[in-house]
Every structure is written in structure tokens, then in C-alpha cells.
Amino acid sequence: MIGIDVGGANLKVVDRAGAHIHYCPLWTEAPLADLLAPYAKDGENAAVVMSGELADSFSSKAEGIKFIVEAVQESFPDALFYGTDGAFHDGPVPQLAAANWLASADYLRERYPNAVLLDVGSTTADIVPLNRFDDLCGLTDLLRLQQGYLVYTGMLRTNVATLVRAVEVGGIFTPVSTEYFACSGDAHLVLGQIAPEDYTAATPDGGPVTVEAAMRRLARVVCADLEEIGEAAARGIAAQCWTAQAGMIVRAVSTCMGTSECNMIVCGGIGSPLFAGMLSGVDLNRELRGMADALPAYAVLEVAGRDGTR
């Protein structure tokens, strides 16, 4: 059996060879079935979670769930889909919507029974108290947003205009443009917090994934060319975006730890090393042999094995 996590931007697959991440922004013609086909061999089955049903190419979550289930079933007719009820299903049901975070919690709750999971991916940050699993079952993304368990900011795809309304440039407090000129991936790349190979999303301008190109995009946020403000100012914009983003996430984690009375933090996702170091947490990349970037895909596979469904 393999583990599959179908997100709105990335398809993540865990098999015997390790974790595989494919950039696959979901729309109704997305090549999801084509990307999965090579993994269907020797009678392999799949355990699946999703969050891509929210993509705005679908008129509803139900339509998105149906599209994803049917695409997976082209290669894995007997695939099992994990839901927010903590159970596996063999067809499209409402409980499949955005259950990937719960699969991670289901797997980790016995290993880290008194920890908060912080999973910072390309798009969002999940903050999950692992000692409250029964209370977590049934939560939708709407409820998680309201309860502080979902912070809609990530390491790659976040528009920097959602992080800061103004930045200091040359000693002057400068409002930012709300155009999609630069993203969080640009800030993290410029600051050396990710490598170019980690930047697995499309750039806002379709340009290259280099530090210079990222600084040019960040300069555009204040309606300038890089030559106009200089590299130091562009790096300053990146640093201010990171400070704001880190503050959003750390505040949510702190609140969750206080209400849940957890006493440790475990970190997954592309942001795992960065936040584990900042928060003195456990870096699941080390614990799970590099699988933390595809944590829900790995977790749903392990849960299926634990529950005897494979």
C-alpha cells in the first residue's frame, strides 16, 4: 500500500522508495490521474487523504471530493479514503473534506500524547493538540480557523501582502501593494531558510527560482525595481515578512499549548527544521527519516496499517 495526500497545490505520495512531491495545482483538468498512474503496480493499493477539494475550480467541496476520488480510483480502484470522522471510506462522502491534518494527528497521538503538532506546509500551518483527538474528529476547516487550529499562511504560496500592510524601506514606513507580486517562498529563499529545490510552487511572475529574482519580486511589492531600492532593502522586506509570519504562527501555537495543557511541540512540513529550532521542538524530519514534508501521506499509510486495512 502507498500513502497519498491530494492538496490544492501539491500531490504527495509515500511508497517504499520514500516521499515524492509533485506540483499539481488542482483544476478540473489537473493531471492528477496521470501523476498517480506510475505508482499503481503489482496490485498496489492506496490510503488517501485530501484538502484539494477546496480549490476554486470546483463549485463545491462535494464536487471537489468526487473529482479527487474518481481520479485516484482510476489507478487504485480499491483505494481507502480517510475522513474527518477518523475512519476510512471507499467512496466520496462529505467527511473526506480536509482530513489530512487529522490523519497526521491520528498517527502521532500515541507517540507524542502530550504535544502540539505544528505542520507548516507550502500554504497553511496546522496547529493540532494531540491530546484532544476525540474533540478534533468532525472539525471542518471553518471550525479550525475559528478555533485557531488552522492559520492560513505557509512557507511558499502566501502573498506577502497578507503578512504585512507596510514595510520599512530606507527608514520610511512604506505601504505595500496588494498585487500578487511576491510570495512567502521569495522571502524564505532570500533569507536562506529554504533552498531553491524546496521552492516547489510556481513563482508569482513565472520567473526563475533564484535569490536575485526573488529580491526583484520583493522590490515590486513596494512598486520598485531592485536597482531602485537596493539589495539590502529587498532583504529587509523579506525579514519583515518573516517576522510577521512567524509571529502569526507562534501566537497560535502558544494559545493552543495553553488551552490544551500540552508541554511539547512536534514540527512537520517544509517548515519543520525552521520552527523546530525556533520553538525548541521536535523536528519530525529527523524522527521520520525525511518524511515530514509529506506527513499526511506518510501518516495515513501508517494509520491504515495500524487499523488493519492493508
From TrEMBL:
Pfam family, one: Hydantoinase_A
Gene3D superfamilies in the cross-refs: 3.30.420.40, conserved archaeal protein q6m145 (3.30.420.190)
Domain Hydantoinase A/oxoprolinase per the UniProt entry, residue ranges: 47-282
Top-rank lineage group of the source organism: Archaea
Gene Ontology MF annotations: hydrolase activity
InterPro entries, alphabetized: Hydantoinase_A, MfnF
NCBIfam families referenced in this protein's UniProt entry, alphabetically: one_C_unchar_1 (TIGR03123)
Name the record gives this protein: H4MPT-linked C1 transfer pathway protein
Species name: Methanofollis formosanus
Species lineage: Archaea, Methanobacteriati, Methanobacteriota, Stenosarchaea group, Methanomicrobia
